[in-house]
Amino acid sequence: MDIIQAIRDAGVVGAGGAGFPTHVKLAVDAARVIVNGAECEPLLRVDQLAMEHQAEKMVRGLLYAMEAAHAPEGVIATKKHYHEAVDTLRRAIAGKPNLHLHLMESYYPSGDEKNVIFEITGQVVPTGKLPIDLGCVVINAGTALNIADAVDGVPVTEKAVTIAGDVPEPLTVTVPIGVSMRDVLRLSGFAGDERDYALLVGGPCMGNLAENWDEPVTKTTGGLIPLRRNHQQITRRLLTVEQQAKLARAICCQCNRCTQICPRNAMGLPVEPHKAMRAISTGHADLLGNAAGVLACSSCGLCTNFGCEMGLTPSIIMTMLKGELAKAGVKPVPETGIVPEPWIALKEVPVKRLIARMNLTDFDRDAPLSSKTVKPASVTLPLRQHVGKPAEPVVKVGDMVARGQLIAAIPDQSLGAALHASIGGTVSAVTANAITIIANEAGGH
User: Fold this and answer.
1) pLDDT tens across 405-427, in order?
2) What is the CB neighbour count within 10 angstroms for residue 208?
3) Which has the closest alpha carbon to 315: 262, 356, 362?
4) How far is CA 395 from the centre of its chain?
5) pTM of this structure
6) Rounded to whole angstroms, how far apart are CA atoms 315 and 298?
7) What are the start-end ranges of the H helices in 129-172?
């Protein structure tokens, strides 16, 4: 079987958030394939529960990925304290000498791709370079499951999502791609709305505020976290650039704690958020220092959520500057002679301490796997749920489609991912951005 073709046909992309097409990522010659199950973001439980309940399938997906990438070694990286998942994974890899577990402490951001590679190999991926430059391919735990499905001829039509935050019943559910986030939230008993709450899509550290709760769940949605509008994680995100600059001018004392706590800086990369704060507070771009350091930032948010004791937002400023540099055509220059700090482990921030600093301790609850799901009257499937060009529709309004049927294909000679119907029904709209399907009487399944 052509595993790469099966993955391509199934529309598999990175399920952890980036959405890079997996058939492209695996079309290499690698020394090892790493399944990243460290689950970077606090409160989310998707990867932990996938490893605990679907370890055999995940290992099968890893083995297929290794075969596709010609990799002799496979590693599953996860956290030591995921005891049930670790026990299940150990049983799943028993008798497979080319597979092993790498157990990590519970620090943030242990699930960052560069952190995972550094822990396993002792090497740092330079800015602008890829893991394959160090012989590694890294895939998300959910991606490994989707690879196993793809080889079985099952395309990506569902997504596992943790519902956490200020909800009555935190849980982790599997829902059809294209259902509205509002409908998924209701599975937790949440009855609030936009007047009193804001919705973080993703995790509390790197997630984005939803502009419209009726937007659909996609292949990369991992978490839905409603918080009251006066919560610090919301108010910080609502600050304008002008307001952040004004606060920086008034408060930033250049203490350097944001840089001292930066995990990328500790790895030896030139990330210095205090210089970004200095530049924006004075209005002098030449004080930014090495622009490559901005491009090396992972936007993990640790400098904002843990480092700055003045309530400033260096990570948001860094992310904004990254966007401006990209628009200006500034490219990262890969570092050479990278020397991680010898005391790097002493800078690892325990997740529990981070959660407390972020005022999220009340929401740090189990979000167990649930059989609850959404049976939608309709779904809206964005044509771009991945890195690359949007998928091109192969259906038209009025067409009847079955669940799992191809509805949009990869453009010729382009980076992209195929899209499949997540329910059975009738195509009601095809736009430049999305395809809408109205469910049939059987509920779309």
Assistant:
1) 999 999 999 999 999 999 999 99
2) 10
3) 262
4) 30
5) 0.95
6) 9
7) 141-151
